[in-house]
Amino acid sequence: MQFDRTIGSVRIVNAGGIGMPFGEPGADWLLLGPDIELRHTRYDLEKAATRVRATKYPQAQEFAARNVLQPPSETEILEMFAKVGLR
């Protein structure tokens, strides 16, 4: 999950991810420069899912369906984190 937060005098930034996004499918990343710009890029999700399914990963079918084509929403992930005490 992308974020850019400051806690006290410390800035913490997370670019996000490509293979397991939360919310809108695609690639989350950031651009570093004078400032930090959180970015999102769409890509061919069906092609990515096909490539995942072709691997030897034991849960490839489920991963392609649940993480590539239909990733959980940001709300669902935050609720899950809260249940396990990570929020």
Chart the SSEs and their pairings.
Elements: E1 3-7, E2 10-14, E3 27-32, E4 36-41, H1 45-53, H2 60-69, H3 74-83
Antiparallel strand pairs: 1-2, 3-4
Helix pairs in contact: 1-2
Features:
single chain, 87 residues, alpha+beta, two-stranded antiparallel sheet, 3 helices, 4 strands, 33% helix, globular
- What proportion of the residues form beta strands (DSSP E)? 25-35%
Which whole number gives the mean pLDDT? Answer: 88
Shape: globular
Total of helices: 3
Helix and strand element order: EEEEHHH
- Largest sheet strand order: 1-2
Residue runs with pLDDT of under 50 for 5 or more positions: none
Class per helix and strand makeup: alpha+beta
C-alpha Rg, in Å?
15 Å
Q: What is the percent of helical residues?
A: 25-40%
Biggest sheet layout:
2 strands, antiparallel
Describe this structure in words.
This protein is of the alpha+beta class and 87 residues long. It has one domain (3-83). 33% of the residues lie in helices and 25% in strands. It has helices at 45-53, 60-69, 74-83, and strands at 3-7, 10-14, 27-32, 36-41. The protein has a two-stranded antiparallel ribbon. Strands 3-4 form a two-stranded antiparallel sheet. Helix 1 (45-53) runs antiparallel to helix 2 (60-69). The longest helix is centred in the C-terminal third of the chain and has 10 residues, at 60-69. It is globular, with a radius of gyration of 15 Å. The two termini are 13 Å apart. The relative contact order is 0.16.
